[in-house]
């Protein structure tokens, strides 16, 4: 057998630095553009990359189509969360939330449209913002994170209208229950709290770790992911991934997976979840695992389903996590290809 | 020039494509016509005439064949057009069916989801005991409670009665004791008076 020829190593320090950066990159958040053709991804270096889904999915896609169209420096810290309205991209991470115009974002040297910081109690530490949630009916944004409060900001005026207090430790995730309308928040303190937006009060508390069926004390009590579908809620993290019936506060189904899940969402008649381990898990509400599709990152932190009606050809599931790659699943059953920073 | 050669070859191939040599035959016809005009004997002339006629009929035959083929091609084209249109229609129909089936799939998924939600809740409800059973148990317990409280009432009444009777008894005893004491005191006083009278008789 021939001895393997040594690879030519990039001795250029800039290239080495870039390679190291790619190696240690974590993509925390994703957001689809209102037209459905672009995907924004935010990483731990504070950069946001915009990928063109329509180019990468088209029949004449080349290797360059899987690279970002533009990458810019958005925050000084990691970009933990992003959401899109019908014209803006909102990104948050290091205590500030910034707004960008989707129409301008593809141009070089794009500047943020505005930046706001919620009123924190101490000015010494600036707590990170872990989750953003849009309330379309009120045209407001809910921010939650390290200071254990949910702040609500009016998107027209930029003023912070309420601060909902109740969590005793930082908040990981938010979900919107459209019918009531209520906001659900899950945090490190192990509780899922439901807040009524009109009265700004906590209406229901579910302390997940206190229920024997799902608690896993060796993992902790933190709630890493939350999703809701009017009467039902699924949450996971330290405790096992469980489906809850909200009105009776009872856990109905415990999904048998040991790895803590970091993102969960309802899709048609399934529940999709991802977390530690490279798989995207497809669950039926009865608790059966319908499919386990491997991705390319060793752990996944966010899932995004592009259901924008304007671009049905770009209807894909994208998953990102502990690597510089964003996996694209065209048919939910397998990974078609990966976009990369 | 090269171009005109190309054109010429192209034209010749088009005209004489079937390779039966019709073009050559027509050229030969001219020559044979001249030969026939110049023929000497009657026999030679007649045979030449026959040859020309046969050549002509051959040419006519191949022309007829070509016309038939042309006709056939036209009809084949029409046939293909028809089939093409039919296929287009069935493609459109299939597209519609696909869209319809997709809607049905979504509906079926929704139904499945609802069923599974129902099952999940039903499982939880099963864990709790049956409502009828619990109601029956509650009724039985209620009756028992009533019964026991009746017993308690009657026992208390009895106790009251006994208490009152004892009270009467005790007070009677006390009265008797008092009476006995009084009687004793009275008899003591009488005895004392008697001894005084005996010690001191009337002077």
Automatic annotation (TrEMBL), chain A:
WD repeat windows: 164-205
Principal subcellular localization: nucleus
Keyword annotations of the record: Apoptosis, Developmental protein, mRNA processing, mRNA splicing, mRNA transport, Nucleus, Phosphoprotein, Repeat, RNA-binding, Transport, WD repeat
One GO cellular component term noted in the UniProt record for this chain: chromosome, telomeric region
GO molecular function: RNA binding
Organism domain of life: Eukaryota
SUPFAM superfamilies listed in its UniProt record: WD40 repeat-like
Subcellular location: Nucleus speckle
Gene Ontology biological process: apoptotic process; central nervous system development; mRNA export from nucleus; mRNA processing; RNA splicing
Task performed by this protein: Component of the THO subcomplex of the TREX complex which is thought to couple mRNA transcription, processing and nuclear export, and which specifically associates with spliced mRNA and not with unspliced pre-mRNA. Plays a key structural role in the oligomerization of the THO-DDX39B complex.
Subunit (UniProt): Component of the THO subcomplex, which is composed of THOC1, THOC2, THOC3, THOC5, THOC6 and THOC7. The THO subcomplex interacts with DDX39B to form the THO-DDX39B complex which multimerizes into a 28-subunit tetrameric assembly. Component of the transcription/export (TREX) complex at least composed of ALYREF/THOC4, DDX39B, SARNP/CIP29, CHTOP and the THO subcomplex; in the complex interacts with THOC5; together with THOC5 and THOC7, plays a key structural role in the oligomerization of the THO-DDX39B complex. TREX seems to have a dynamic structure involving ATP-dependent remodeling.
Entry's family note: Belongs to the WD repeat THOC6 family.
Full protein name: THO complex subunit 6 homolog
The organism's taxonomic lineage, starting at the top: Eukaryota, Metazoa, Chordata, Craniata, Vertebrata
UniProtKB/TrEMBL annotation, chain B:
UniProt keyword Nucleus, yes or no: yes
Subcellular localization, as worded in the UniProt entry: Nucleus
Keywords: Coiled coil, Nucleus
Transmembrane segments: none
Sequence segments annotated as region (Disordered): 184-203
Pfam (any one): THOC7
Assigned protein family: Belongs to the THOC7 family.
Purpose: Component of the THO subcomplex of the TREX complex which is thought to couple mRNA transcription, processing and nuclear export, and which specifically associates with spliced mRNA and not with unspliced pre-mRNA. Required for efficient export of polyadenylated RNA. Plays a key structural role in the oligomerization of the THO-DDX39B complex.
Official protein name in the record: THO complex subunit 7 homolog
């Amino acid at each position: 057998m021939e001895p393997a020829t040594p690879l030519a190593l990039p001795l250029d320090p800039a290239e080495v630095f870039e390679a190291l950066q790619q190696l240690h990159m974590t993509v925390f958040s994703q957001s689809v553009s209102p037209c459905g053709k672009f995907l924004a991804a935010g990483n731990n270096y504070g950069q946001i990359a915009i990928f063109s889904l329509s180019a990468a999915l088209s029949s004449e896609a080349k290797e360059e189509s899987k690279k970002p169209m533009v990458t810019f420096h958005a925050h000084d810290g990691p970009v933990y969360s992003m959401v899109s309205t019908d014209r803006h991209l909102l990104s948050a991470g290091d205590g500030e939330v910034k707004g960008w115009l989707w129409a301008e974002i593809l141009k070089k040297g794009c500047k943020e449209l505005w930046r706001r910081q919620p009123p924190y109690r101490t000015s010494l530490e600036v707590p990170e913002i872990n989750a953003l949630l849009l309330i379309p009916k009120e045209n407001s944004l809910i921010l939650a994170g390290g200071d254990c409060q949910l702040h609500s900001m009016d998107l027209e005026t930029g003023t912070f209208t309420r601060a909902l207090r109740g969590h005793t430790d930082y908040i990981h995730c938010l979900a919107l229950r459209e019918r009531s309308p209520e906001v659900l928040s899950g945090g490190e303190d192990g509780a899922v709290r439901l807040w009524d937006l009109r009265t700004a009060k906590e209406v229901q508390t579910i302390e997940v770790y206190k229920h024997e069926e799902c608690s896993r004390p060796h993992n902790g009590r933190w709630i890493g992911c939350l999703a809701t579908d009017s009467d039902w809620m699924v949450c996971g993290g330290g405790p096992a991934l469980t489906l809850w019936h909200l009105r009776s506060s009872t856990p109905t189904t415990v999904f048998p997976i040991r790895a803590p899940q970091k993102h969960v969402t309802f899709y048609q008649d399934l529940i999709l979840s991802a977390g530690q381990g490279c798989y995207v898990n497809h669950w039926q509400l009865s608790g059966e695992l319908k499919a386990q599709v491997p991705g390319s990152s060793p752990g996944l932190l966010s899932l995004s389903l592009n259901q924008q009606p304007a671009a049905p050809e770009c209807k894909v599931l994208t998953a990102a996590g502990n690597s510089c790659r964003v996996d694209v699943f065209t048919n939910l059953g397998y990974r078609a290809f990966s976009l990369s920073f | 020039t090269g171009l005109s050669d190309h054109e010429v070859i192209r034209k010749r191939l088009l005209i004489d494509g079937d390779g039966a040599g019709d073009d050559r035959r027509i050229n030969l016809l001219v020559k044979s016509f001249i030969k026939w005009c110049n023929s000497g004997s009657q026999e030679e002339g007649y045979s030449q005439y026959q040859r020309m006629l046969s050549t002509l009929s051959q040419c006519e035959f191949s022309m007829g064949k070509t016309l038939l083929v042309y006709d056939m091609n036209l009809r084949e084209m029409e046939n293909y057009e028809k089939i093409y249109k039919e296929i287009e229609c069935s493609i459109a129909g299939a597209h519609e069916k696909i869209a319809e089936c997709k809607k049905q799939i979504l509906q079926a998924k929704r139904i499945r989801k609802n069923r599974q939600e129902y099952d999940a809740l039903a499982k939880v409800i099963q864990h709790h005991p049956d409502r009828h059973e619990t109601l029956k148990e509650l009724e039985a317990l209620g009756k028992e409670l009533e019964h026991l409280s009746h017993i308690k009432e009657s026992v208390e009444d009895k106790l009251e009665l006994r208490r009152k009777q004892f009270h009467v008894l005790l007070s009677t005893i006390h009265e008797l004791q008092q009476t006995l004491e009084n009687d004793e005191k009275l008899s003591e006083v009488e005895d004392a008076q008697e001894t005084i009278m005996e010690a001191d008789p009337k002077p």
